[in-house]
Amino acid sequence: MTLAAVVGHHPPVTRCLVIASVSLTVGCALDLLSPTTLLLSWQLVIYELQLWRLVTCFLFFGPFGLPFLWNIAVLVHYCSSLEGISFQRKTADFLWMLICGAGMLLALSYFFGNMYFVSSSMIELMTYVWGRKNSNARMQVFFFVVRAPYLPWVLAGISALMGGGVQDHLLGIAVGHVYYFFEDIYPVLPTSKGFRLFRTPKLLKKVCNQRD
């Protein structure tokens, strides 16, 4: 069974993310790629125009192992649920959320200076937005149940227990909160006058064949 067949029933953006992430890991496992060519290096991006690093740093979850499988499982479940339910028939809006989130994370990584892969932060961004949009949901995480808004914090804790860093997760949560606030809370306030900071460009909607 091919990878495309396994993820074929998932929404299009999720499907592309999973296939790209697994492909990069397979490429590194077969020595076709080196992780050093995928990490984020602002010096190489700016002075040698290695622009692909601005994308691959979001897609590589490390070599095959428990952390990789965990991240892919979280990506498949929550990204698919967010795109397929909360952003149902709004592929352009979902893609624009990822683009805006990626832009904010890249800006933060430039100032922090020690973020080489931002894939964990992107997952936390998606789980945070998912949790806020499904605030009444309760999730089974191993042997305990948590409410959806607290899920990103639990995932960050699990990552720390597995030997991963916490900074990337906290940045993802912060960026997710910024997106959620300006997209779902601020526009409905009387003082906002309907202003939306993250309004999806009409061109992207046209490309994705999304109707308002």
TrEMBL record:
<feature type="transmembrane region" description="Helical">
    <location>
        <begin position="139"/>
        <end position="163"/>
    </location>
</feature>
<feature type="transmembrane region" description="Helical">
    <location>
        <begin position="54"/>
        <end position="74"/>
    </location>
</feature>
<keyword id="KW-0812">Transmembrane</keyword>
<dbReference type="Pfam" id="PF04511">
    <property type="entry name" value="DER1"/>
</dbReference>
<feature type="transmembrane region" description="Helical">
    <location>
        <begin position="94"/>
        <end position="118"/>
    </location>
</feature>
<dbReference type="InterPro" id="IPR035952">
    <property type="entry name" value="Rhomboid-like_sf"/>
</dbReference>
<comment type="similarity">
    <text>Belongs to the derlin family.</text>
</comment>
<comment type="function">
    <text>May be involved in the degradation of misfolded endoplasmic reticulum (ER) luminal proteins.</text>
</comment>
<protein>
    <recommendedName>
        <fullName>Derlin</fullName>
    </recommendedName>
</protein>
<keyword id="KW-0472">Membrane</keyword>
<feature type="transmembrane region" description="Helical">
    <location>
        <begin position="12"/>
        <end position="33"/>
    </location>
</feature>
<keyword id="KW-0256">Endoplasmic reticulum</keyword>
<dbReference type="InterPro" id="IPR007599">
    <property type="entry name" value="DER1"/>
</dbReference>
<keyword id="KW-1133">Transmembrane helix</keyword>
